Every structure is written in structure tokens, then in C-alpha cells.
Fold this sequence. Notes:
The chain has 23 helices and eight strands. The chain is an alpha/beta fold. It folds into two domains: 334 residues, no CATH class; 104 residues, no CATH class. The radius of gyration is 26 Å and the shape is globular.
Amino acid sequence: MVRQKQSNIPQTSLFPFWKEALQHRLAGVILAGVYFVAMAFVGLKYHVVGDYNVETDFYWSYVPQAKHILEGSLPIEDFHGPVYPLVLAFISLFTNDLFHAGVLLSTLSASVVLLLVYELFKRLFRVDVALLAVLLVAVNTTFVQYSYTAGTDMLFMALVMASTFFLLCSEERSWRDIIIAAVLSGIAYLTRYNGVFIVAAVPAAFFLANPYQQEKKERWRTVSVFLLSFFITIAPWGIYSLIEKGSFFYNKNYLNIAYEMFAKGKMSWDQYWSVEANKFTSLTQVIFADPGLFISTLLRNVFGHLEGDLGSLLGWHTGVFSLLGIVHLFTEPPTRRVVSYLIFATAFFGVLLLVFYGERFSLYLLPAYVALALRALTWQKLAEYRFWNLIHIGGLVALALVVWTAINSYRFNSQNIDSGPQEVAVIGRWFEQNFGRSESGKIIVARKPHIAYYLDMKMQLFPYVSTYEELLAELRKVNASYLYFSLMEAGLRPQFRHLLDPRNAPPELRPITYVAYPPAVLYRIELGDAK
Length: 531
């Protein structure tokens, strides 16, 4: 290693390889394309059944909505807008399978994110920083996981990153870019309602950082056009919600906030959603039920979410450099557009403080944390240290972080990509061979909705009851035809654990088929008056 005088060190890239190739207008497209091909192959080959975590929402909510859309109706869901099921329904026209449509949509969205990160960071920083950022994001454990997971996370991230790109891709205002960014933000909001952060983030960025270096009057015009375009984008759905549900901004995400405040760590998920959630009817009620607890929860979450982001999302091996990058902001102030980008990230971080932590919720923040880490590694004083008079020591550290992150990601995802309930697919295939679609549309009771998807039935949640007699009463009430019982049901309803053994079947439940390991039994319900 050679220490050079600073005067001899130009402001060049961290490593001088492929500089011209990285400047090519198609460089980002090629990187994104390679990622798409690789992850589409991996996802479609190994991720054959959705897991019991995030993909529960896919089977429970998005699949039924997509089916309704394909049948000509547009349902209003309590916790999210219509964009994801609309896109899912469209892609399924080509895949003929909603689950694989969901996997491909996530992979395609993730590839678009990488393209946007490359193009945005090339403009905000340098092309070498853009490349390293793409590599660190692409191999990140959570990013890879949700590249093959059927859910809204990657589509939402792609839409928000696209909006961010059009707002910050140029040093001068372009009305076309402002309107495109606003429309994309509106679509992101109609994908996941926490996309509302942009309504606060854009005014804050334009008045505090002033990325286009405008006079105050022009900033007001820019922000006004953005917000008006955003509102026009969401207005049709708002009017439809107002007509059907009585509220322009209809949703029940306040129940997730209530869970964070009053139920987390105090009761089971099932107990909260089956009993306690019914006590809350609005966000105002949740906040004023205990304002002190609401504020203290937000303050507690600042540190909890930041620790989760730097440790679980990013990994502390990179997170420490992100912290150094934050400190570096005060020693060498960044450009106005970089500050604007960080304001967007901060606003999004603030919205997430309202709910329980999950790495996937913070995916939009991942490139920002990476940018901070790379800012620390591109500190000019580090440029004094170069290997073989070529490679910036910061570049070597960044490449080491890429390798370290990739190894961790491979270990995690190779173990989790096929963690979905394989027994569900086994029973689904058996049922298809023996019953075909003759039972389509009938009601099946289960703890998770996966089995309903593979049997083409309608799912009813396993009731929150204590006795077998109460269970029978609930089965009769919903006119259920089938009951699915596996380790998932037994774990939260241990009083019915004997149903794991089809030899112990009570007279009202006739075993149709079962899997010995892990144990799972499909029962036909025979109550006399049940159809």
C-alpha cells in the first residue's frame, strides 16, 4: 500500500476498471437485466409455495381481489389500494397462475429498482458509487428475499424510487418530470398507503434543500403542481371509496397502529385481530385513547427502527459505515439534491414509526443507507491510500462489504426460499387429481389461506374458540365444507391438536387425505345440513 500526497490524487473513481462501460447509457439496463434473468430462474424454480409469513397476505387478500378484478369487479380492501391486485391480475393473463405472476412481478420490480438506483446515483454522486450501490442493494439479504416473494414490497419500492428519480434526476425543473413523479407517487400511494409520506417529503425537500435553486415563489409553484397532480391521480379511487365506503381516504391501517401501541408483546396476533381490534374505529380514537403512550411509542420506535435498519436490514458490517456517513454529512455538506433525497428517506422513516418494525417495510430506505455508507468510504482523505497506485482503499472495503453481504444473503435465502408449506402443495396436487375443480368455490376453514388457493376454494379463518362444540357451531355458521388442520392450526389452537391424527377424527369430520410429515389433514365437514 502506498501513501501519496493529496495533491497527486484526483477526484476519480474508487477503482478505475470499466469506467467507459459504466458510463454507457445501457449499463444500468444490462445490470438490471442480468438480475432479472438470474432471480426469475431462482424464484420460479425454488420458490414453489408461498411462506406462512408475508405471503399469507398474498393468498389471503391479493389473490381474491385479483380474481374479482378478472371477473369484472373492483373490491375495496381495508388496508391497501387497488394497484397491486390490478397489476397482478394483468400479469396472470400471461402466466395463468396468480402465484407465479406475483413472483415475476416482484422480480421485475426489483430489477427496475436496481436500474433506478444506478441512474439516480450516477447523477447524484459518481458512476463508480452507482455501481457499488447497485451491487450492495442487489445482494442484500432482504432485497433478494423480496425479489422472489409474492407481495407488494418490491412494486411499491419501484414506484417510489421512480418518483424519487424523476424529482431529482436533473438540476433544473422540468414540469414533465414533476408531473410524472407526482403520478408515480399517487400510484405508489394506491399500492400501499404509507406512500402518503411523499406529500410531506416533497414540500420539506423543496423548501429546506431547494434542489432546483429556485426563488420561493417558484418553489411554491413546483410544490403546488406536484401536490395537485398527486391528488388528481388518487381522486378516482377516493371518489369510488367515498361512494362505496363513505370516506375519500378509506382504510383501516389505524388497527396496525393500535396493535403496535396496545397489543404488541401483550397478546397473540389472533387474539388481537379476533377480539381487541374490534374496539377501535378510527385513527383519532387510537391516538387519544392514550396520547402519552402514542408519543412514547413513536420515540421508542425511533431507536428500535434505526437499530433494526442498520442491523437486520443492512447488516452491521455495512451499518457502521452508514453511521459514519451521517457524521460525514456535518463535516462536508452534500449537494442540495442529495439533501433532498435524504429528506425523502427521513420522511419515510418517520411514517414507519407508527407501526411495528419489519425489514421489508424499510426497503425504500436501503439505497439511502447504502449511499451514506459509500459517502463515508469515498471520504477524500481516504483517497490518499491506494493499492498498487490504482485502487482506492474505500473501493476495496466496499467490495469486501459486497462479498460479505452476498455470503450472508446466500446462506439465508438458500435456506428460506423453499420454506413454504410443501404439504399444502402435496394435498393440492392430490385433490386436483381426485376431485378436479368439482369443489371450486366451497368454503374451507384454516388458519392460513394457502390451502384455499391450491384447492380453489374460499377461505374462512379458523375461529377463535375453545371447545369442539364451539368449533362445530362456527363451522355450521359459515356453511363450511372442509376443514384443514396442520401444525400451523395446532400451534395456536392446541386444544384441537388431536385433529393432526386422522385416526382420531370425530364423526362430524371425515378425513379426505393427509400428509404424515409435517402432519396435515384435510377433512370434509359432515354436519348434516352443511353443503
